[in-house]
């Protein structure tokens, strides 16, 4: 008999608040460095800028790995899943300035709010390990590491050509310039030369490439880093330079990856910034057209390297009165300056081979220069031939293939040389909101690192923190702070007033999580040992050639100084996908397609949003997934059905096992377990949905308990509520993960009758949920069926799942 008992409503709001409080009170996610019998797992997800509030992307970044963290804990691992804030830097500072607020106040306010939001997601972060890069107790160690680098020659100060953002009034790293524009504010970037602090990342170029081999990273991420580092094997070849005026000849070296084409070099091109030009312009009798040259040099200054590399009409100026000699042919060839040759790549000079290089071809056509083919294999009348072949018009080298000729011509005329696209990392920022560079400039001793006992150099509170645009940080005006005595000789000296790039702050934050309160070291060696290297690092694709590369370099530098034990910080890396607006476009305020997660959490609950985001696509792939309101409603309905099924009147008296459901349950356990491990949260959820369909026909108490445990990492609040409703006294999140019985899975075998053109010809045994294609394959392998298929063509198949397969042949 059935009584309409008042069913408890699924009140997500009450439930979620209640359990979030309770978990915090019980310290459920406090992580100890070691726990007996549990292996450690370090799961890291990139920490956010305190921009104001969390968007859907943050939800995706934090809640999906949270599923893995929770599952791993139930599976017996000791999991570190920490969180913090990358709180210095331009975005926060710009936002504060826009609102007329002090950056510190603004940042702190945002952190407080965002933390609340992160709790509202039901994330299992251990907040006792929170790291904020603006905390002097943290940046003391950022500064300390910088001083170690300085003492060991890894940090140096140099007049450096830099990208200057006129709006943000600061230097930008190459990585922060996108198509000639500032990554943050989209202003066109200018070129300036400034005295800057650099880190020697280029010293690590080879190791940054080679050590990728040992990492379990997607190939695509490895390739991006390799391309960014851009190692080129080639040769340096010297060209003699002669003048029309009676002046002593000199030499210019070029870098080439095609020494085999030397006989086809019909002119030289120098970057307008090449030191030879600077020198020639001070001896104006050398250049017959020095005015024209000077003008071109000036015009080039207004262009960024990226603009110069764009494929458009070539420009340049011939140096009148100057000649080069091709060392292979002894021919006199003209010398040009052109902005397509970059000053800071290779030697800043090239030998131009128009027959075999596209840019040189375009240039030669425009300036009427000779095009001499030296590699057979293609036609060079319309365009350059860049393919392989054997040498022609190359004297004694004729008939030799390209690869061999490269070796031979290099040996005869030049030196082997490897060049990189990667530049040293400029870390000076002329901004207030950052870590002060811990250096004191002394007129006698030079740049002196601030001694450890005087660290941290605290960022002073100043009134006028607006960027000045004069190339100096606002700290330059903080006289009281700036004027100090030299730590070495005690003379009057000045502090460095630039601050560090925020990518420095984030280059080691994951080490601090292992020992966040240490006052004596950046982290205790033993504690680092228990967690490092990070087992899985989840992040955004935009960091592939920035943070991800910088932090690998930083880690290697620490490794070389004996400060960490691993060569690489992250064993596995994954770049997650992007959540798009419902229209499939990138979410943006101007498009009006921004989804506000807070509103949905209020209406439908954090569990729904978590589950929806986990369901939206495979987590380890970098696809883009449009937000679908129907999908959200769908997962909410799923949760409501779970809720309903849990009500006492549904499971009352269900003490006996529902045998039919048993094998399905075991299959679901296996599928959810495997899929979580593979980060395929979407198919894990699909499996739970399938299971629910069956369970609604009848489920026992024990079976339902097992199901709840599978659900717990995904919908932690609901799972906890239902668990406790069922009179369990302790948290479901402390339960052991269910194990499946392989026998139970195997027992779910179905016998399928196989028909050929409507007549039963045999039977096959397959797993009950086998796909049609699997059944067809099994049928084709069956002896008695095969006899009826021989010599025939399968036109189509009709499958009644679990029962009959009809194969239509003719
Ligand atoms: C002669 C030549 C002949 C070249 C040929 C190419 C093809 P990657 O692979 O990117 O390293 N180059 C060298 N320095 C340059 C600079 N500062 N600015 C612009 N271009 C520069 O490219 C190396 C090639 O780019 C070099 O090889 C040089 O042109 C050019 F059939 O030398 B090659
Ligand atoms: Zn001194």
What does this structure look like?
With 810 residues, the chain is α+β, with helices and mostly antiparallel strands. Among the domains are: 141-200 and 425-503, no CATH class; 232-419, Isoleucyl-tRNA Synthetase, domain 2 (Alpha-Beta Complex), CATH 3.90.740.10; 580-744, Isoleucyl-tRNA Synthetase, Domain 1 (Orthogonal Bundle), CATH 1.10.730.10; 749-809, Ubiquitin-like (UB roll), CATH 3.10.20. It is built from 28 helices and 31 strands. The strands form 9 sheets. Strands 10, 11, 12, 13, 14, 15 and 16 form a 7-stranded mixed beta sheet that branches. Strands 2-1-24-25 form a 4-stranded parallel beta sheet, covered by helices on one side. The protein is globular. The protein binds ligand ANZ and zinc ion (ZN). Ligand ANZ is lined by residues 232, 255-258, 261, 271, 341-342, 345-346, 348, 350-351, 353, 356-357, 419. Residues 232, 255-258, 261, 271, 341-342, 345-346, 348, 350-351, 353, 356-357, 419 line the site of ligand ANZ.
